[in-house]
Amino acid sequence: MFKKILIANRGEIALRIHRACKEMGISTVAVHSEADASALHVKLADEAVCIGPAPANQSYLNIPAILSAAELTDSEAIHPGYGFLSENAKFAEIIKELGFTFIGPAPEHIRQMGDKIEAISTAQRIGLPTIPGSCGAINTIEEAISSAEKIGYPIILKAASGGGGKGMKVAHSEGALRAAYNIARSEAKAAFGDERVYLEKYLQNPRHIEVQILADTHGNVITLGERDCSLQRRHQKVLEEAPSPILTQKQRDKLLYTCQKAISKLGYLGAGTIEFLYENGEFFFIEMNTRLQVEHPVTEMTTGVDLVQEQIRIAAGLPMKITKNPVALRGHSIECRINAEDPITNLPRPGTVTDYYPAGGPGVRIDSALYPGYSVPPYYDANIAKLIVHASTREECLKRLKRALDEYIIGGVTTNLPLHKKVLNCDAFINGTYDIHFLESFMKQED
Q: Residues 195, 189: contact at Cβ < 8 Å?
């Protein structure tokens, strides 16, 4: 087992990884920008190294600075968390070349699944169902129109290297496709340095369902249930729950079995998430995230498995603690992403935390690096906390979540806590009948 791990991230996920390491008897190294010198993960780590100025491209995306910190502190392994460099295949390659261990999958799998076009081709090869699409990049508007006519409108353009809604455009007609094509390519180029786009059938009212998997070097591949991530705004997840309230046990069993077989065929190692759109009883692969997910706590609450510790064990060449597949699920869990943003406009609202009273009690978990007096910097993602609750049933979980949201106080910073409270009183959410368009419609009604 490793003696020292460098955590190449910040905020609540850096603190989450630190805690997992300490419980395993592993020393931690925090890296931080100048803006994060007073961050909680920096205060609690065994060692801390400043890796640059506030902008992420000069610090948390600065590969030479991170690797220099690893060498300076004699770290053995590097955990990337999520975001930043977590799905950067080159970063993983360099780590390996320099003799460190990357706590994540092999670089070839990161690269393979990071290119959405190649990911779809791979999914088809390993037996995952995919959405009807262009079967490759669309290089001209004429190709796009021809492909759309074969698939049938509406269609959606997506960036090959994309994520987070950037480079995504929906077209319901040829005219709309002509107008959207160059815009999508320009957005993709600006966001990812890759202007390639591809085309898929646009599903009207799908759910976003994802499956958590773990695979080790001893031939064990397990699934840890599914998460329903359909509550989204601008293609960004806002609330997640596990298990999905709309799947039958038969559907769940079939989905998990399909994913387990596919990952075994792929030869993947580590933690990963296979994401699907679900509509009219059918699942369609959309992408695979080769890292830990923001919403991983709901899986931990419903399975009892510490995903970060399992990531570390796998990277160290040890077998997972739990190898029975699928992992048994217990109860229901919901996570609310708490962001420092205006709950109506969705614009970031950084500031200084004046009062901080996290919710507590049975079945309540807070993943956050906030404390009174902490200044939320304006340079990074707006997520400042995650409120996770667990109960034996979904109904009990909803009641517990309402109570926890009422208890949770973050003073001095504007957050989206009011939005979560409103959603929990909406019939579509209470009944579990919402889809990925629900929150957008709900917000328009609120406006």
A: yes
Tokens of 438: 């629900």
Same-domain status, 217 and 82: no
**Does residue 171 lie in a domain region?**
yes
Of the candidates 15, 10, 49, the residue with the CA atom closest to the CA atom of residue 29: 49
Task: Report d(CA 53, CA 64) in Å as an integer.
Answer: 14
Q: Which residue has the tokens 């059918």?
A: 282
Q: What is the pLDDT of residues 117-140, one digit of tens each?
A: 999 999 999 999 999 998 889 999
pTM of this structure: 0.94
Both 329 and 436 in one domain: the answer is: yes
Domain total for the chain?
A: 3
What is the arrangement of strands in the sheet containing 47-52, beginning at the earlier edge strand? 47-52, 27-33, 4-7, 77-79, 101-102
What are the tens digits of pLDDT across the range 378-416?
Answer: 999 999 999 999 999 999 999 999 999 999 999 999 999
Distances (CA, A) of 96 to 102, 107, 111: 7, 9, 15
Which residues are known to be catalytic? 291
